[in-house]
Amino acid sequence: KNQVEQSPQSLIILEGKNCTLQCNYTVSPFSNLRWYKQDTGRGPVSLTIMTFSENTKSNGRYTATLDADTKQSSLHITASQLSDSASYICVVSAPTSGTYKYIFGTGTRLKVLA
Amino acid sequence: AAGVIQSPRHLIKEKRETATLKCYPIPRHDTVYWYQQGPGQDPQFLISFYEKMQSDKGSIPDRFSAQQFSDYHSELNMSSLELGDSALYFCASSHRTETYEQYFGPGTRLTVT
């Protein structure tokens, strides 16, 4: 069982609509949680990063929330654009051997239609 | 600002050949990570190095090996290539004392025929 699970697996929305992606994790200890956007064939681009004590972080039309008690995070996209079509990956980092390892979620593939 | 550099960007090999991918981290970064991303899949962590020592190991096949050199660049060596090794290979780097932000390179697309 993946320690970082995302839902839904895929999502199709119309341009201009809002959507929310979910990330549930069981990783412990936990250092921080990131949301990445990855276009097909490209490297992931960081959207937000939150530590244990942060509840929300915004980056333009992207707003991430974190509930460290329930180990849940969400990424809300406002007024979606065609360019938002991509995979969104939740990544949880955990300390290991003097550095940190990054546990990738299963990803949500978002398609925005005109 | 300087980013993570990977070379080559594209590589075509035949089955059973070997391949070497190179990664040059952002200056000052001491940790390097390798990921493999198959078609339509999310990146899978392979292996990481911290201060030239292996720090973590993921789903790296025994046919693959990697190392980090004194200048912190890293090389991923892949032998006895199989068709299933065709993928995008990403390298990322970070510095242990900062926000643990992992910066990804542009990737090397390996095609095994």
Write a structural description:
The complex is a heterodimer of chains A (114) and B (113). The model of chain A has no long low-confidence stretch (mean pLDDT 88). Chain A has no helices and eleven strands. Chain A is globular, with a radius of gyration of 14 Å. Chain A is mainly beta. In chain A, strand 7 and strand 8 form a beta hairpin. Chain B is an all-beta fold and 113 residues long. Chain B is built from no helices and eleven strands. In chain B, the strands form two sheets. In chain B, strands 2, 4, 5, 6, 9, 10 and 11 form a seven-stranded mixed β-sheet that branches. Chain B starts with a strand and ends with a strand. At the A-B interface, strand 4, strand 5, strand 9 and strand 10 of A face strand 5 and strand 9 of B.
Secondary-structure blueprint:
The complex is a heterodimer of chains A (114) and B (113).
Chain A: E1 4-7, E2 10-14, E3 19-25, E4 32-38, E5 45-51, E6 56-59, E7 62-67, E8 72-77, E9 86-96, E10 99-104, E11 108-113
Parallel strand pairs in A: 2-11
Antiparallel strand pairs in A: 1-3, 3-8, 4-5, 4-9, 6-7, 7-8, 9-10, 9-11
Chain B: E1 5-7, E2 10-13, E3 19-24, E4 31-37, E5 44-50, E6 53-57, E7 64-68, E8 74-78, E9 87-94, E10 103-104, E11 108-112
Parallel strand pairs in B: 2-11
Antiparallel strand pairs in B: 1-3, 3-8, 4-5, 4-9, 5-6, 7-8, 9-10, 9-11
